[in-house]
Design brief:
By secondary structure, the chain is an alpha/beta fold. The chain folds into two domains: 2-74, lambda repressor-like DNA-binding domains (434 Repressor (Amino-terminal Domain)); 78-253, Endonuclease, Chain A (2-Layer Sandwich). It is 53% helix and 14% strand. It is built from twelve helices and six strands. Strands 3-2-1-4-5-6 form a six-stranded mixed beta sheet, with helices on both faces. Helix 1 (2-15) packs across helix 3. The N and C termini lie far apart (52 Å).
Length: 255
């Protein structure tokens, strides 16, 4: 479906003699973003699909394809988010557990085993660890994480697994591009995770996830809604110094 949408965009662009840069300027995105859409590797969000539909005079065809694509993608809701996360300029997360980018392999395996993960655990853990390489790149994203306190004291896997995980958090919390805060368990929170992404072209997205459901949003109104929720959580969270102290206290509990 994404490839079909991309072929329609490319065909009409070429019919009009426009370069990818020219079309990008008309819909306010970079030529690289147009190239991604035309290849079908990263289809447009709803608002951009509407702009392309108007600029290319498709009279609703692009929007209808986007709707079909959105319904198709809902079944595999994490795919778009993970693709965007890998190239984001900044990532803001609130989580009831340690988010994937900061999990150790042992911690990730313990969570997957508990959740009766249906695919090969070894492959799943390896892919999660590979996604973390973005934090070690030459130009890593700004990562701001708010953790709910209970995850620090809850025993996931074993004491050894938890010690390694908490030490890992403390180590990453010292990096200049990683900001780690803890939300005390007596403060209000939401029953799931929130991730806010800012891409290098300035576009934004929001991802929410529960036990077995999730959804990725790119409509500015939706993103703004989840930004407000994140801001409230951030306002109630401990500062970085106090958060590190609480992680150290939890580390002692697991010895």
């Amino acid at each position: 479906m994404a490839e079909l949408l991309g072929k329609k965009v490319r065909r009409r662009r070429e019919e009009r003699g426009w370069t990818q840069e020219a079309l990008g300027a008309k819909v306010h995105v970079s030529h690289n973003r147009i190239a991604q859409i035309e290849r079908g590797t990263d289809p447009p969000p709803g608002q951009l699909a509407e702009l392309l539909d108007v600029v290319l005079d498709y009279h609703g065809e692009i929007v209808e394809l986007w709707k079909l694509l959105a319904n198709e993608g809902f079944k595999d809701y994490a795919k778009t988010f993970l693709k965007r996360q890998a190239v984001a300029r900044s990532i803001h997360e609130f989580s009831l557990t340690v988010p994937g980018l900061l999990q150790t392999a042992a911690f990730a395996r313990s969570i997957m085993e508990y959740g009766a993960y249906r695919e090969d655990l070894g492959d799943a853990v390896r892919r999660r660890m590979e996604r973390q390489h973005v934090l070690d790149s030459d130009d890593p994203p700004w990562l701001w994480v708010i953790l709910e306190e209970s995850v620090l004291f809850r025993s996931t896997g074993s004491r050894a697994v938890m010690r390694e995980q908490l030490e890992h958090l403390l180590e990453y919390g010292e990096r200049p591009n990683v900001h780690l805060q803890v939300l005390r368990k007596d403060r209000p929170c939401v029953p799931g995770s929130i991730s806010l992404l800012t891409m290098r072209d300035g576009s934004r997205g929001a991802y929410t996830e529960g036990f077995k459901t999730g959804q990725f949003f790119e409509d500015p109104k939706d993103v703004e809604q989840y930004q407000k929720i994140y801001d409230r959580l951030h306002a109630d969270a401990l500062g970085t110094g106090a958060s590190a102290g609480l992680i150290q206290a939890a580390l002692r509990k697991h010895t």
